[in-house]
Design goal:
The complex is a heterodimer of chains A (281) and B (260).
Chain A (H helix, E strand, L loop, with lengths): L9 E4 L5 H7 L5 E5 L9 H10 L4 E4 L13 H14 L4 E4 L2 E3 L4 E6 L5 H18 L3 E4 L6 E2 L6 H12 L2 E5 H11 L3 H6 L6 E6 L3 E2 L4 E2 L8 H14 L3 E4 L8 H25 L1
Chain B lengths: L2 H13 L11 E2 L6 H23 L1 H7 L1 H14 L14 H8 L2 H21 L9 H5 L11 E3 L4 E7 L1 H9 L9 E13 L2 E7 L1 H11 L5 H12 L3 H15 L2 E3 L3
Antiparallel strand pairs in B: 2-6, 3-4, 4-5
Helix pairs in contact in B: 2-4, 3-4, 5-6, 6-8, 10-11
Classes of the chains: A alpha/beta (281), B alpha+beta (260).
Chain lengths: 281, 260
């Protein structure tokens, strides 16, 4: 089944260490994804480069602070700032994570897992609709890596994502690395997760690296993509058809050329997967 | 357990040093990842993330205290003032004040001043650009407009009154030079920190220049009032001194026109 959304191609996470090289080299990157919070400021270098890069490349906004599943009221000031930023950069879409990151009164600054219960489902769905009302566009939500699960779960994570997108109209950012990390940590089959998501709802893919400790895996985004994740990526594209794909790196930043090489690898593997898909069609 | 109760228990776990109230019993681990290890990953990530942000915003305080003492101070800080803003950019907002509350006065005064200096750089870094006066604006000013010219600080300008050699320490750490040790200055001095285009700059002011600049930017003196104030010290050289300083302040990008 083909996805019915425009495919931006192959993108990179925009990080400040690469600003100058992007401006000077105009690299072969189809689009950039920004971390929204880095640009919710009033001035300075970040906004300067953002405007310059937005003139040359399509952008997507990816937030980490929405706390869509949190126990608190939605932060309307944050949403207002997010909307203003969206008006400024005109992103192809706006995403965040299916998680909570703020507790009772404190910001916890992490992508914390939700129990996959009916209560969570209706709680999150109602808030997604609220956010979409403010942003005037569908919200795209990413699956997070996790290290514990609630005993109270009524659904698997993929069942929850399905139900949530059906109930709220949100779209999905499928982070293949996060699926792999959680599958190792919780002992489920990563491909079962991916093939059971609603294909028409998947707006974007993420590729990233992690730290493998043997008994468990920690999502660090500070390593190249590993072979099992590349495998899953190819399987995913064979299954879905073209989907905008982003390579994320958040730490231990390699020289820019290395990151571009890794993106070229994604492009090459993706092209192979799509060619195999055509042959099978 | 209701969702909200589960989340609040999770939050308490992250903020506390140990599992409180059996939160772990509500969780399932994986085949080779037990619940305690899983919770420890979240707990450690929370602490490490906050520490990393504080190390980034206060590198000189970190260098001065060393890894362990700085980590201890940050742990106490986030316990006392947990993060309240969605962006980690504001985590260190109360660090200077906390140092004053937490440490004995003899130790806290120079350290708090250093924290204030470092925080001022972060404020200048992403402040609004404003509309800084340029020399071309001054050249276009009609002769009759000069006496009534009024200016104010550009929005990125931060003023830190230094009673210690904080700036010297900051410079030494930035240059990876030998740590100079903390000393009280003979005379307190104002250090200005601001952003010029996309670059943060800083400069210490001599008391007379600080007085003149504050008169114009804080108190709203006109240019002719500045000349009159300077005449007390510089007599007939006052207008020349006033023009020299004003040119310097404008070249630095410190000022913008004060709205009439």
């Amino acid at each position: 089944m083909s996805v019915s959304v425009p495919c931006l191609g192959y993108g990179l996470g925009l990080r400040s260490v690469y600003y100058q090289q992007i401006i000077e080299q105009s690299p072969q990157v189809d689009w950039f994804e920004i971390v929204s919070e880095n640009y919710l400021v009033q001035g300075g270098k970040a906004l300067y480069y953002l405007d310059a890069i937005a003139e040359r490349y399509p952008l997507v906004m990816h937030g980490v602070s929405l706390s869509i599943g949190g126990p608190h009221a939605l932060d309307m000031d944050y949403l207002k700032q997010l909307k203003q930023l969206a008006d400024r950069v005109k992103p192809a879409w706006v995403s965040d994570h299916l998680c909570w990151s703020r507790g009772n009164a404190h910001q916890l600054h992490d992508l914390l897992p939700l129990p996959y219960t009916e209560e969570s489902l209706y709680h999150v769905a109602a808030r997604v609709r609220q956010v979409q009302e403010v942003l005037q566009r569908p919200l795209v939500l990413e699956n997070v890596s996790s290290y514990v699960r609630s005993k109270a779960d009524d659904f698997t994570e993929w069942e929850f994502l399905n139900a949530l997108s059906h109930l709220s109209g949100c779209e999905l950012l499928l982070d293949i690395n996060n699926v792999y990390v959680s599958s190792r940590n919780h002992g489920f089959d990563a491909w079962t997760f991916i093939r059971n998501l609603p294909p028409q709802r998947i707006r974007q893919l993420h590729l990233a690296g992690h730290m493998d400790y043997g008994d468990y895996v920690v999502d660090t985004h500070d390593h190249p993509v590993c072979d099992p994740v590349w495998q899953l990526f190819q399987q995913t594209l064979e299954h879905l058809g073209p989907v905008a794909t982003l390579l994320e790196r958040d730490d231990h930043f390699p020289p820019f050329a290395e990151l571009l090489d890794e993106l070229a690898k994604a492009r090459e593997l993706g092209a192979g997967a799509l060619a195999r898909r055509s042959l099978c069609a | 357990m209701r969702l909200i109760d589960w989340q609040l228990a999770f939050e308490r776990h992250l903020l506390a040093d140990a599992d409180e109230g059996g939160f772990a019993s509500t969780l399932i681990g994986g085949p080779t990842l037990d619940v305690d290890t899983g919770l420890a990953i979240y707990h450690n990530a929370y602490r490490a993330r906050l520490l990393e942000v504080m190390q980034g915003d206060f590198p000189t305080v970190w260098h001065w205290l060393g890894d362990d003492e700085f980590a201890g101070l940050v742990a106490a800080y986030v316990q006392r003032y947990p993060s309240a803003h969605f962006s980690l950019r504001w985590l260190g907002q109360r660090f200077e004040g906390f140092i004053g509350e937490y440490l004995v006065a003899a130790q806290s005064a120079p350290l708090a001043e250093l924290a204030r200096l470092e925080w001022a750089f972060t404020l200048a870094f992403d402040a609004p650009a404003g509309q800084p006066l340029a020399l071309e604006d001054m050249a276009r000013l009609a002769p009759e407009a000069w006496p009534l010219l009024q200016v104010e600080w550009g929005p990125s300008v931060q003023q830190v009154l230094c009673r210690f050699n904080s700036l010297q320490i900051w410079r030494a750490v930035k240059a990876q030079a030998a740590f100079p040790g903390s000393l009280a200055l003979q005379q307190a001095e104002v250090c200005l920190i601001w952003r010029d285009q996309q670059v943060c700059r800083y400069r210490s002011l001599e008391p007379t220049e600080a007085y003149a600049l504050a008169g114009m930017a804080d108190q709203g003196w006109t240019f002719s009032e500045l000349c009159a104030e300077l005449a007390v010290t510089y007599q007939e050289g006052a207008p020349l001194q006033a023009v020299t300083w004003l040119k310097q302040w404008v070249e630095d990008g410190l000022l913008q026109r004060r709205a009439p």
